[in-house]
């Protein structure tokens, strides 16, 4: 069970909406929150500094909602969720219910609302390069992974490895990074693809040379099996150049399908 602080129906007058009248005149919105955070220390010490001050949260939400305008309450709710996770580091997740009770529908309705749930997840990213300034490509990728939505917690040492497959090419430099992110898995994948594109990554030859290769190896304990994204990465348990740097920073991370720790998978592969 997760602890949380709940704020119910905070009323904010703001100017969100698609229509000009909504943008000009404004209207009342009702915002409810669940702030997921460990309250154990605060409960034991009776010290507000060990918790999240819900009065301050209400002031922050009011100011943010008034100053960050959006056409859709979907966007307003998501931006607020990300802003709360960024402002309060002790939050592990947040649920935002953004209500628009006076929506211009022209029919009797009690409420229109969206629910947005965002949480912090630890993901593991594999990095590789075997073209140009390999180290610089990896350094830049790690720099880009530190942003408003991701925080790099650990980075392994860079290791040189031989290429896989029959395509003649230079050796790789490989590494792994531990990242705390508020992005859902497909959005994180989009970010990785964006960083690869910035490095001039071209997908022409399978197992061919590349300026930068970023693989989403693990995303929390999730299992995803689609054409676009497979997590855990299908090849990770077979590749020493993945498991060796990953075991350096996360030996106890568990492969959710195999039920084994990364250190165990590496040990089996090296036998």
Question: Could you explain how this protein is built, in words?
Answer:
The protein is of the alpha+beta class. The chain is 31% helix and 29% strand. The protein contains eight helices and 13 strands. It has helices at 20-25, 40-45, 54-67, 73-87, 134-144, 185-198, 240-249, 262-270; strands spanning 4-14, 27-36, 93-99, 113-119, 121-129, 150-155, 159-161, 172-181, 213-219, 224-225, 230-231, 254-255, 260-261. Strands 5, 6, 7, 8 and 9 form a five-stranded antiparallel β-sheet that branches. Strands 1-2-3-4 form a four-stranded antiparallel β-sheet, covered by helices on one side. A hairpin with a 4-residue loop joins strand 12 (254-255) and strand 13 (260-261). Helix 3 packs across helix 4 (73-87) and helix 7 packs antiparallel against helix 8 (262-270). The longest helix is centred in the N-terminal third of the chain and has 15 residues, at 73-87. The mean pLDDT is 91.
Mean pLDDT: 91
Would you count the extended β strands for me?
A: 13
What is the radius of gyration computed over CA atoms, rounded to a whole number of angstroms? 23 Å
The run of helices and strands is EHEHHHEEEHEEEHEEEHEEH
Helix content: 25-40%
Distance between the termini: 40 Å
Sequence stretches where pLDDT stays below 50 over 5 or more residues: none
Task: Count the DSSP helices.
Answer: 8
Beta-strand share of residues: 25-35%
Largest sheet: 5 strands, antiparallel
Class inferred from helices and paired strands = alpha+beta
> What overall geometry do the principal axes of the alpha carbons give?
elongated
